[in-house]
Amino acid sequence: MSSNLTPQLNPRFCKREYKMRFQALSLLAAVSLLAACSTAPETGTTATGAGTATPTQTTGIRPGSQQDLAATAGDRVYFAYDKSDISPEARTILTKQSDWLKKNANVTVTIEGHCDERGTREYNLALGERRATAVKNVLVALGIPANRVSTISYGKERPAVVGSTEAAWAQNRRGVTVVN
Length: 180
Hints:
CATH 3.30.1330.60, 2 domains, about 180 residues
């Protein structure tokens, strides 16, 4: 009976298991080395908060593109819970966006209104529309022709961050300016 309680070591099994572990570790090491050797991005940015970025170099960014807007002026503004009011921080970003749009007079944009996951689908679609319209109204007030700015609401259908935390919800309550 004692022979049944002690595990029998099969030398072939041990060798196979050792070989599989060695291969897995080798693969992990190779992936780590490749990740460490990846090339640096062509453009660097320094985050300044509230969805803005300051370009540290401009190589590779096409003027008038979505990347140019995001790097130069910031492409999104954030809203308080259940609100569509433009905050002072958002107004600063929208002023930069209007300057960018004036410099790129041939560009049209769509303002996307987004919400967090709380609330009904219908309510969030309406709130997203109010947010997108509020962003458009500020841009128009800053001198951008209304026919260059369209709006669309995605409500809670396209979250930037998936999750049910205040941090995730705060990033999903946004208005995003998208270059057409």
